[in-house]
Amino acid sequence: MRYSVLAKGAKRAPPVMCVAACELFGGNRLAAFPTACALEMVHAASLIHDDLPYMDDDPSRRGQPSNHTPAMPSSLSAFATLSPKHQSDLVPETRILRVIAEIARAVGSTGMAAGQFLDLEGGPNSVDFVQEKKFGEMGECSAVCGGILAGAGDDEIQRLRRYGRAVGVLYQVVDEVLEEKMKTKEGDDEKKKKGKSYVGLYGVEKALEVAEDLRAKAKGELDGFQKYGESVVPLYSFVDYAVDRGFSVGASS
């Protein structure tokens, strides 16, 4: 668990987004930390699943051997499946039921699990669904949990939901573009991932158009939080970070 959750090079995007969303509505970041830690565990478990031989079959993650490389795949699958279930011990008591329900929804049969299944079994037209479920759900859940912990209103929660989903997919699309450009630069086009992606289906140029649409959508949702002033800046920065991979709280556009 330490090897995966505390791995060097991890961006910690889900927990940071949760804390930023909590603080947007005046919540205490210390109250968000247990949930933020649980979200990072869920995220790590999802990456373990993605790297397994029957999925992307990636031998490395963040420059280090993937979890299944030094470990037996059978025990690894058990860890990846069980990790999300421990989060009920980590979230704060305040609004605990809503937070647990949100995380359970995100990882369950209508969320990330559905995305994993269709990534393997669905047709090429399922790419939108796969991307939203596998990657959008994590961003959505992270932002929404932060809002719930701070007592955000229903309309604000829905806006966070749309924002987080857009950022989650945006991050993945940009990852795919960067990976494709790196493979082209190095002349390595032999390995084809089994999963579905915008780059794999439409190519880099179309994927970049999708990324720009997602960036505009995410920032459009945040425009509804202007009344909170500078507290919304970190969430704006998340959008630019997804594209530019440089985090700054000094500007909101």
TrEMBL record:
Keywords: Magnesium, Metal-binding, Transferase. One of its GO terms (biological process) is isoprenoid biosynthetic process. It holds the Pfam family polyprenyl_synt. GO terms for cellular component: cytoplasm. Gene3D superfamilies: Farnesyl Diphosphate Synthase. Belongs to the FPP/GGPP synthase family. This is Geranylgeranyl pyrophosphate synthase. It comes from Liquidambar formosana (Formosan gum).
